[in-house]
Amino acid sequence: MVVQSSAPLTVPDTFRALAEVFSGIKARDIRQESGGTQNNAGEMFPTGVAAMLFQMGPLGNHDVFLDIGAGIGNVLAQVALTTKVGKCIGVEVRYDLCSLPVQHMRRHAVTYPLLRKVAMVAGDVRDALLSTQVPTSDVTIVSTKHFLLKNPRSWI
Fold this sequence. Notes:
The chain is an alpha/beta fold. It is built from five helices and four strands, in the order H-H-H-E-H-E-H-E-E. Strand 2, helix 5 (95-107) and strand 3 (118-122) form a beta-alpha-beta unit.
């Protein structure tokens, strides 16, 4: 697909772009080694992100989107490609996972220049001074999908 435009993509075009950008990332790349602390990357499907964005309404260039637990950055990429958001920032606790999406998005930034709005930071959000340091102090929208369930079976 040859896009090279800075106008937001349609949802179908975004789905195709996401498939192109992230097709090189395999399940084995994001699974944590056996015996780890359960920091597996669980990604949102593009249809779920599209529904979330629809419910939020239009995002403008003054908006800064923060994704806590960004995983492979697919949510960040979709927000960048389908909205007029000014910047998309992802915080991912797994250092080994953080560089992978950055490489894939940089590789496709010529075709999809809106991916240049995406930045990823490796670190634990509990240790970050998000509200006092630029660029996260400018955040207007926060997305988080990280839940730690000590014993979900006890809820049944």
